[in-house]
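New here. Invent one.

***
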Amino acid sequence: MGNIIFLILVLISFAGLYKIFEKAGLPAWKALIPVYNFWELGKLINRPKWWGLIMIVPGVNLIMYGVYGFQLARAFKKRQNNDLFLAAVMPYLYFAYLGFSKETKYFGVSDIKSESSFVKNWADPIIFAVVAASIIRGFFFEAFTIPTSSLEKSLMVGDFLFVNKLCYGAKVPQTPIAFPFAHHTLPFTTGTQSYVEWIKLPYMRLPGYSKPKNGEIVVFNYPDGDTVTIGTQQYTSYYEMVRRHGYQNMNNPNFTIELGDITVKNGKKVGRPVDKREHYVKRCVAIAGDKLEIKDGEIYINDKKQAMPEHAQHFYDVKTYTHLFDRIESDPETGRQNYMMNEAFLDDHDIYVTEAGIKAISADTVVYMMNMPEDVAAQIKAIPNVLEVKKQVAPKKEYNQSIFPHNPHYPWNNDNFGPLTLPTEGMTVAIDTGNICLYEKMLSTYDNGIHHITTSGANVLYDGKPITSYTFKQGYYWMMGDNRHNSADSRSWGVVPFDHVVGRPVFVWFSMKDPKNNPISGKSVLGSLTKNAHDGKFRWGRFMCYVGEDGLVSWKIPVLIFILALIGYNYWNKKRKQKKA
């Protein structure tokens, strides 16, 4: 309905432009040709013609409509604040008013004396900064922050980076009416929606120059984020909570949920379109058409064992004589003594305190649980009084409810999974009641719009009709974190459709530690300015780095040369102009 209303408003504005062109002495037929009409409109408001090209950019063109309305009101001597406001906020109707009102006349903008006023010095630059930034952010590059440790130590919590959206083809916004630079939630709020769904566009993307490849790090919209409950979405998946607590409880807003050491009240359930789902970043370990299998923590693609990423992390059981890596802390209220992990030791080895703990204590030994890369595990093993360092591996056929497809008939877990063949565009697979759990979300939500999938006896029903096979409309990918035992990834919620793929990280420009993970070295900001990356908050070695296939590549020297060259050019150009004057 919103799309129809929007189309009607656009047609009304075109009719108004037709009459405006007549009043201004331009051929009226030009007002009826989309984009070209705004190219010509630049003549009437003394603004660049190329502004008209911006009208092809969804979302940004809505801002430009208001810009044109504002400038047209000035050209028709409607320069009172109320007129300018109405022209900017309701340009579609205001175009019709200017065109069809017998009292309005075109005067142009040459008589405006306020070219050095607020409009020229502040409003125009701010608006076009928003327009330019929106185009760059939407179709070229977007800034992201790594919020979770799923890719430790490849991309780390606290990395600030730019994502290339051109590589796979930039997606056209499906919900173009949104607050600028906000994703799905308004700034400084916890659940206020930043977009409206009055206008919805179909899925479209511009041509790209590549597709996701095995081993690439990819940014994508979180597939399981099509439904969230406000207040709990930052902690866990809505569907995971349904599996644990049931639909009845998840539809009860007064239901409270224990999430680790946090108790939250169940919130409002909302659906999100694809382009407004949470951004995730993982490594693409399998592409469409691949056969995936995980055996004892090792990934096999098409029956070929894959190399483990250089910085991959796993949980290890570390067995020691005595309390080697913990300390005793007394509770001031009860006087009870508690064993706490030694934060200084963990920080020294860059093991996050949130990913380490005491697993078991006996008369003469202690077993610690630590999440760390293989090289750090080797360092720990070499410490005196360390008896054993053993990687945790979930046994084969040990069913884990949190692992896709969440069905006991597929007793898979983090370390032993599959085999599973990822559908590719045009692939036809047999469907029955035994395997529908593997494909249900693809058929019902991802592949071809929303459909109803049910079973009846031995039949699988697709919108009420029995099916025995299905041909997929797009390719699917398998995304996993390098932090193999502490990553919510495709093992938890399944495949990633290609229409959810956003881009590829290309440049880390800044990086700092999170004090929650590194409570000693990651605490002080000013005190870290004179410290190295090991002892201080700032990871200096990750500043200004290109994200390559084999890790980060420093671009500090090229960036420094570019900045110095830019400063030198500006200095030379200033001197040249002074000499010429």
Observations:
- The mean pLDDT is 89.
